[in-house]
Amino acid sequence: MNKTHKKASDLLRIPFFSARKALNRWRYMAFRMPFLEQKIVQLKKKKGEFLEVDRQRSLETVPPVKLQNQLPEGFSVGLVKDLDNYNGEIQKVAHWYKYERFLIQNNIDYDFFSVHSSNWVDCAQNFNLIVFRPDISPWALHEARSKIFFIEEYLKIQCFPSHKEIWSYEDKINLNYLYKFHKVPHVPTFISHNKVETLEFLNQTEYPLVSKIINGSASKGVHLIKNKKKAEKFVKKVFAEGMSTYWPGFGQKNYVYFQPLIKHKGYDLRIIIVGDKAFGYYKMVPKNDFRASGSMLIRKTNLPVEAVEIALNIKNKFSHTFLAVDFLEDSKSGNFMVLETSVFVDIYTSSQAIVNGLPGYYKIATAPFRMEFCQGEVWLQELILEELLNEKITKNLKFNLPK
């Protein structure tokens, strides 16, 4: 390889190079250059990713969720806009305008909260509930975790996500701590920050290995290590200068996250739980790949009772308001094993479950566990706010009302 090729490789700084990883890296670099940002906006417009009508009109075909209980006078919600960095355009997948509709439809006082501004501490004290969906970049997550912890622990104002929820959001290592503590049936995982221990593990394990970085969605930061020689080379670099990732300036340094390549039935199963409702779909594995996440090959049909019950139990153990659980179904045992859980997922439509061609959700009951499919479209963001507010009201929890 000549010097020119080496420089090109250094510029991309992407291990196990693929076109998709390159595109994702350039996405985050592009916003430093206005002309590239404009090109990305133009491409997104052509693909129909932005709202073309008033944001509330875009939601009016789906019945709103109505809060059944009365909120105290003076209750106010701080709403943070997410994914709004495209020249003022609103992406259809953004969460905030769906939360906003719930607040409008239920006559709940709200204002937009500029959490990124220098006076965010003063502004936060105007609200008793703050809602937003942070970006998954390492820098955005660092800001969100720091500020949410401060808001909840020192200002005593509730947030969604809570500091407990954001602690494990897009952090595979923290999630694994939770799985072990709560005895969640998950894919066997080796995590170590110790080079000697990791090299010993390579002598004992079977190949290929699946390697993952701490935070990455849609299969980004996930690659296959086919043999021991390549694994040793990878580990030595991780525990030396570190491996570059698709996140500019954030490499994989002094840790490994390995999983066996499980023979499964050709799909990941996502189960979503909020309140007493379950949604979900199958994410199919593309041809010549081992990863289903991010493929956008979605099949919506009946959900298995066993997986829904496991997902509900996990959500209850974690004490989360909302939880999406991704499963593998082992080809040998037929058991469902958790791949990953998340307090946020991209929600493209109001039909997150479809049975016999009809959109709806499963109504869950326990003791004994049972579920019944109910027809009807709904935005999950509205169910999240309903769950948050009903829990406070029914448990007579103290509202920290602004003075």
Describe this structure in words.
- It is a single chain.
- It contains twelve helices and 16 strands.
- It is an alpha+beta fold and 403 residues long.
- Strands 9, 10, 11, 12, 13, 14, 15 and 16 form an eight-stranded antiparallel beta sheet that branches.
- A hairpin with a 2-residue loop joins strand 9 and strand 10.
Short description, anyone?
The protein is of the alpha+beta class and 403 residues long. The protein has helices spanning 3-12, 19-30, 34-46, 96-105, 120-124, 138-153, 163-168, 172-181, 195-204, 228-238, 305-318, 380-394; strands at 76-79, 109-112, 129-131, 158-160, 190-192, 209-212, 222-225, 256-260, 264-274, 277-284, 298-299, 322-330, 336-342, 354-355, 358-365, 370-375.
Helix content estimate: 25-40%
Instruction: Please count the beta strands (DSSP E, at least 2 residues each).
Output: 16
What percentage of the residues does DSSP assign to strands (E)?
Answer: 15-25%
Low-pLDDT parts are 1-21
Helix run count: 12
Element pattern in H and E: HHHEHEHEHEHHEHEEHEEEEHEEEEEH
Largest sheet: 8 strands, antiparallel
Cα-to-Cα separation, first versus last residue: 66 Å
Q: How would the global form be characterised?
A: globular
Radius of gyration, taken over Cα atoms and rounded to an integer in Å:
22 Å
Class from secondary-structure proportions:
alpha+beta
